[in-house]
Amino acid sequence: MESNLARGLVEPKKSWLNSATLAWASWDWGQAAINAVMTTFVFTVYLTSELFGSTDHASVVLGQALTYAGIAIVLLVPVTGMRSDAAGRRKLWLTVNSLAVVALTAACVFVAPDPKYLWLGAGLIAAASVFSEFASVNYNAVLTQISTPSTIGKVSGFGWGMGYVGGILALALVLFGFVDPLFDWPGANTEDSWNLRWVAVFSALWFLVFALPIFFRIPEAPPQLNRRIPLASSYKVLFGRIVSLWKEDRNLVFFLGSSAVFRDGLAAIFTFGGVIAAGTFGFALSEVIIFAIVGNVVAAIGAIVGGWLDDYVGPKWVITVSLVGLLVAGAGVFFSPDALGFWLFGLLLCLFVGPAQSAARSLLARMAPAGREGEMFGLYATTGRAVSFLAPMLFTTAIAIAATQVAEGQAQRYGILGILLVLLIGLVLLLPIRTPKGAARR
């Protein structure tokens, strides 16, 4: 009988929370620093500041670089996932791509506050986002190696939760150690913006340290084929498999489409949440940061609890209830007259975001053909990128329409309705999806 090691599976333990699960979740804990610190709250804010010339021009440059990165992800991610599955190199490429992210992030320390370094900084951030997406595809595919059908929901939820908590802790250390230090030390030196440049080195080391366990604890996945797929013929093979998937498992194709839509809505909640808090409800920057920290803690709790429910009632049930909860909470934010209402319904939104994200990942892991998890998560990433314009477009469209009907300064609130429409469309598309047998232990 073929051994677990030969099949790339971790030996089963009595508890789902074992060294393999902890090693896997540790990667997400570390990678969250790249998203929270480098891409969202600190380094890109530094890069688009007046230190690099016109803030409008800097924002355009960063947007262009990230657009090119998005195109590269759409074109390359499915092929890289498929090739790593075929060759049995899932962990290898997870390691290589993670180390590339570490190197690119650390190199941001050379981005001095001068307009001539603007494209260097934007290019490094964009390249890091591409390799981070490559690594995430193989990371998600490992989920099936460290869990069983009865624990996959809990494991996925635990990983999401640890990612939230890791990002919060890294962000807090950066804010109080580099940006607004509690005590004076060399890393807080603001001359030539060294405090913000050292943030890049901190983020790279944070990711590297917490990524190391998965490199050594998780066995390599077995090859799907007895041969490697030549790079020149990769797209031909990929398109052939997509056509085959459409003929053999149209249900899975529809899930990829529906999840792409509602995941865009989930991403928009975090993207525009701070904007709405400040613009519509009058939050100061410090209040926005405090809300972000509390909101991420709530999202982590929701992801972990949702993971447990996932294994008992099924991932589709968790996603459906979460999307309904998001619609109700979003309506509450829309009708809230003051900041107290935003705190109440905003945190309720965060509570439902985590379970929806986690259960979507576990459902795809359950539906993916054995040995093709990397390929499926590559398509998962690509479909998500393909519709990533939807929520921002409806958000801005709703505001533009409302601006012609309401008093000045009141239109931004209506952008919430655009995000809710995306979530509603995703929910409607999800309802006909059939889940695999044994996806729940009722």
Polypeptide structure, described:
There is one protein chain. The chain contains 16 helices and no strands. The chain is mostly helical. It has helices spanning about 20-40, 45, 55-85, 90-105, 120-140, 145, 150-180, 195-215, 235-250, 250-280, 285-315, 315-335, 340-365, 375-385, 390-405, 415-430. α12 (about 315-335) runs antiparallel to α16 and α15 (about 390-405) crosses α16. It has two domains: about 15-150 and about 180-215 and about 230-245; about 250-370 and about 390-430, MFS general substrate transporter like domains (Growth Hormone, Chain: A, Up-down Bundle), CATH 1.20.1250. The radius of gyration is 22 Å and the shape is globular.
- Helix fraction bin: over 70%
Number of domains: 2
Q: State the assembly state of the protein chains.
A: single chain
Kindly state the mean pLDDT as a whole number? Answer: 86
The outline comes out as globular
Radius of gyration: 22 Å
Number of distinct helices: 16
Share in β-strands: under 5%
Count all strands and give the number. Answer: 0
- The termini sit apart by 31 Å
**What structural class do you assign from the helix and strand content?**
mainly alpha
What is the H-and-E element order? HHHHHHHHHHHHHHHH
* Low-pLDDT runs: 1-7
Largest sheet: none
